[in-house]
């Protein structure tokens, strides 16, 4: 089973600033990597897939990069609604497809 | 519009059995994997397993293999997650979600509480 490791666990950022979140896979997952946002009390929603492609309706301030084992989610200018928990997930080859443990983005 | 509608919250005793459901609409049910995801109180997302309704291929995370059963009935576009003997540690929110590996669409979640 591929292990996904996210860092940092918590990121304190001021509104309007940039946030950079990292995700590392224990072995290559090619570009089969997705990012999700989960706000309190809500189901997760897909932000990025294929490591770099924004899902439908996702603002351009969200961007993804990376391939292989190292991935990054960048939020260029944090808005109030962006303070949430973010998860990466690989979907390489066949299941099981695992999540990272999450990064909480909180207001500084 | 793609929708996944999950069954309602459950309160159970340890040792009881349970089957929760996820009804899909708005797309071809046999096209995508349907995954089940656990979220324990205050914790992160855990990928439990998934089923491909087209051929009933079912895969589990090693952590959940033998602990739960995932099934689907493609005649009614519904996936299921089942326990034979619940434990207090099964208390969690359970989400179904679907997509081609990535999870494009999510259900609203089913809260399962196991308490004596």
Strand tally of chain A, please? 10
Main sheet specs of chain B:
7 strands, mixed
Calculate Rg of chain B over CA atoms.
13 Å
Helicity level of chain A, as a percent range? under 10%
How are the strands ordered across the major sheet of chain A?
2-10-9-4-5-6
Written account of the structure:
Chain A is mainly β and 108 residues long. Chain A is built from no helices and ten strands. Chain A has a six-stranded mixed beta sheet, with no helix packed on it. In chain A, strands 1-3-8-7 form a four-stranded antiparallel beta sheet, with no helix packed on it. Chain A starts with a strand and ends with a strand. The model of chain A has no long low-confidence stretch (mean pLDDT 96). Chain B has strands at 3-6, 10-12, 18-25, 33-39, 45-52, 57-60, 69-73, 78-83, 92-99, 105-106, 110-114. Chain B has 116 residues and is mainly beta. In chain B, the strands form two sheets. In chain B, strands 2, 4, 5, 6, 9, 10 and 11 form a seven-stranded mixed beta sheet that branches. In chain B, strands 1-3-8-7 form a four-stranded antiparallel beta sheet, with no helix packed on it. In chain B, a hairpin with a 4-residue loop joins strand 7 and strand 8. The interface between A and B is medium-sized, with 26 and 25 residues.
What topology emerges from the helices and strands here?
The complex is a heterodimer of chains A (108) and B (116).
Chain A: E1 4-7, E2 10-13, E3 19-25, E4 33-38, E5 45-49, E6 53-54, E7 62-67, E8 70-75, E9 85-90, E10 103-107
Parallel strand pairs in A: 2-10
Antiparallel strand pairs in A: 1-3, 3-8, 4-5, 4-9, 5-6, 7-8, 9-10
Chain B: E1 3-6, E2 10-12, E3 18-25, E4 33-39, E5 45-52, E6 57-60, E7 69-73, E8 78-83, E9 92-99, E10 105-106, E11 110-114
Parallel strand pairs in B: 2-11
Antiparallel strand pairs in B: 1-3, 3-8, 4-5, 4-9, 5-6, 7-8, 9-10, 9-11
């Amino acid at each position: 089973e591929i292990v996904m490791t996210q860092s940092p666990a918590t990121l304190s950022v001021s509104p309007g600033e940039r946030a950079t979140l990292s995700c590392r896979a224990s072995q290559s997952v090619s570009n089969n990597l997705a990012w999700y946002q989960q706000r309190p009390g809500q189901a997760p929603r897909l932000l990025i897939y294929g490591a770099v492609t924004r899902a439908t309706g996702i603002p351009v301030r969200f961007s993804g990069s990376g391939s292989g084992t190292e991935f990054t989610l960048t939020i260029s200018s944090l808005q109030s609604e962006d303070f949430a928990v973010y998860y990466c997930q690989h979907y390489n080859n066949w299941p099981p497809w695992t999540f990272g443990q999450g990064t909480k983005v909180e207001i500084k | 519009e793609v929708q996944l509608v999950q069954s309602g919250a459950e309160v159970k005793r340890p040792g009881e059995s349970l089957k929760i459901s996820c009804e899909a609409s708005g797309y071809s049910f046999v096209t995508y994997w349907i995954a089940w995801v656990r979220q324990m109180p205050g914790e992160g997302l855990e990928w439990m397993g998934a089923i491909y309704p087209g051929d009933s291929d079912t895969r589990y995370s090693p952590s959940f293999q033998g602990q739960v059963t995932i099934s689907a009935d493609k005649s009614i576009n519904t996936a299921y997650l089942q326990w034979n003997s619940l434990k207090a540690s099964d208390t969690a929110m359970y989400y179904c979600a679907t997509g081609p590996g990535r999870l494009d669409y999510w259900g609203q979640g089913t809260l399962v509480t196991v308490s004596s």
